Please model this.
Amino acid sequence: MEKLKAREIAALIAAGDCTCTETADFFLSRIESLNPKINAFISFDRTAAMARAEELDRALKSGKAELSPLYGVPVALKDNMQVKGQPTTCASKILTGHTAVYDAGITVKCLKAGMVIVGKTNLDEFAMGSSNENSAFGPVRNPINTSKVPGGSSGGSAAAVAAAMAPLAFGSDTGGSVRLPAAFCGIVGLRPSYGRISRYGLVAFASSLDQIGPFALDTTDMALVLAAAAGHDRHDSTSVNQPVPDYAASLEQGLANLRIGIPREYFGEGIEQPVRSAIDNLISGLRADGVKLVDISLPTTKYCIAIYYIIANAEASSNLARYDGVKYGLRIAADSLIDMYCATRTAGFGAEVKRRIMLGTYVLSAGYYDAYYRRALKVRSLIRADFDEAFKKCDLILSPTSPSTAFAFGERTDDPLKMYLSDVFTVAAPLAGLPAISLPCGLDPAGLPIGVQLVGRYFDEESLLRGSYHIERMLARG
Amino acid sequence: MAEEYEPVIALEMHAQLKTASKMFCACPASYGGPPNSQVCPICLGMPGTLPVLNRRAVEFAIRLVLATGGTVHPRSIFARKNYFYPDLPKGYQISQYESPLATGGMIAIDTEDGPKNIGLIRIHLEEDAGKSIHQENGESTLVDFNRCGVPLIEIVSRPDLRSPAEGHNFLLKLKQLVEYLDICTGNMEEGSLRCDANISIRPKGTGKFGTRCELKNMNSFRGVERALNYEIMRQTKILAAGGVVEQQTLLWDEKSNISLPMRSKEESHDYRYFPEPDLMYLDVTPEWIEQIRNEMPELPAQRRRRFIERYGLPAYDAEVLTSSRPLADYFEAAVAVSGDPKPTSNWIMTELMREIKETDITRIKISPESLGELLLMIKSGEISGKIAKDVFGEMILSGKQPKAIVASSGLTQISDESLIAQTIERIISANPDNVKKYLSGKEGLFGFFVGQVMKETGGKANPALVNKLLRAAFARLGKK
Model:
């Protein structure tokens, strides 16, 4: 069963060849045996998951079930999404003891699609990181090679799917946090357009950039899970009220009539040789396959990392102010209010979170706001304009997902800047609000997966998935 | 000779909007529930929650902008005001900063020299914070989040006010306006209307502004005036002694009638405002404004005019009765029953207003309908005007219906001519000396006889009848 795709599991369940309970039990057992090694889950509730699976089985038996393409499929949620009655830790000590009092929009969607939530996955604290080494619950190990990082910040979700602890999982992507771990773990990860999936109940890191995104084993599963998760939510003012297409229906069209742009700024120095070769081979393959390739330019590329870290950290410094020891989570008692705040936040947040809160506070401060934050907003609109211009010439933009494959633990922790540069290819799409997908396109000599990224037009996930499907098929043909 | 100073005052007011639900969630926005009974994950700032704008709050705010002649901006932007405080659950308040809902407009106030326009700088939308309740033992502080997320508008005036009395009048005019617009209860004691002030003084006749201080914590209309007076005195003393006014924030202490500087630590905030990424820009279309304009309630000036035209009231009565919306509503409800505008106005302006003075008319026990009933009873001769005043007094205390009071205490007026005539005969025979004096020309004694009749009848005799029958009796005696 660990080799089955989500849609295949759902088909077995729908045909009566296996039950939701058997399926849930299988994956929960995988979690129980593998998690001590991989550390992909922060929590999982066998009792709750089995009760849910039994409920789905009963509905199926009585003929009352609303069958959907993912009925009975287990799913894992990153532990920054609220599931009522379950702890939400954000991999932070500051939320010690906090239990969610409501369901996130994504939780509601998963339940509506008939899925079984098996557990909450590990992440970099408050989704801040590129390696999943910043978790109060310890790092996640890459299932492909446990001496390597799984990528961050949704490392737990990516590892869970890669290790078949769940056939599907959701992560959140602020600057690459779904795509980078998807690339490092050799699976498919998609960041939808800003506003495509509700953020309600996703604990905010950087509100104008955060998007929930799914992980799947292939593009077809991705098309199904995206359709289940997407749509307007009246609880999220930034979610967009647009119909959700049947993404799976158009996959077969592949790249027919779609032009792929190759941004020259993304192919400069700093890309590891195996990554470079894999992408070059892929481009040659596409050309040979008759796909129209276009040379494009995104001149603001060199500013993206700086702009991203100004905007994301500014918003984070405000979003994380609520963790003050007053209402929920950790409180370290002290003699005065100010001392309580300081003691609680000092003990509750990890080093990377503190660094970002300080950076974010700085760029919003009186006297620095204009030079940093306001200017960053202006450059952000130039980045958007760059993409608008590029999409006049092409329909999808192709690049490596990351300049490197999964690196070793500790390799970049001493140098935050080097760590931040892991996101160099992934931060532009979020800044422009655009959808992007990462899918596997080969292995390096050490057997570590290499990811290729496609960026699409705003709300054009269809083309993104068609492109991904085309590449997947092409690579499978060899 | 001591230099004469004039104050320069600007007020910054906050009005709670009386929408059914809060600014960004569905919790009730009403006042006075048990602590933390009107809260949800959103207004408590639970992780992952997001705000959704209450359109009604925007419409209420636009009503005030339209009523004060300001400009509603086609696009305004919500911003986060960041600071740490236990009653601020998100660690920031959603407000508006660089792009407010509206700018400009004015409110006319009354001064000794006639009406004066006080300019408005801006009107913007924001959410209220919770309430910290410090325990009396000083050991702990509790937080009530019911108020948290209640819609507020902030109204900032230009520094156009030149005396505490003008400030007081401005505040009253704003209260009147928000009541008429039906957007705020205007109750300062409950905190639904709040006021801070910026005040400086300068030698009279000079154009330059002095150093200003900010005054906070004024919890009543009178408190605002007293605090401003105190601050003028304080700054004048400093300048007169050759000192320099230090820019600072002062807290008014209503009990001891003084203001004290806030600790500088609490003052030195850098709010780090930035655009709220969880909300879309607030776009207000001309069509929406038109729709709001069409739904606007009657404004004080319109109502004043209508009172004169429809009820034939003197301008003075119309002015007094429309000074507050509840009072004007009261008048209209009473006159609907009594059918007599002027007597109704008289009773409200004398008897009723003496009773209410500082209290709120909505708390008075006499319903406007009962007052109308009372006036009907006078008109029909059922009771005299004098008795009506006693009945009124009883109504104030018990809230009972006038008919019930009159019936239970036997106060119904005596209009039986034979009964009154018999009483008159008795009094005439009992006071032969006074009768003689009266008949010989001491006209002033007429009142004595009226008084005697009223005394005999326990005040219940119809005074008009007593007059008529007394004159008839004396006429007969005189002829003899």
Q: What stands out?
A: The interface with chain A takes residues 41, 44-53, 80, 82, 84, 86, 89-92, 141, 143, 270, 272-274, 277-280 of chain B (CB under 8 Å).
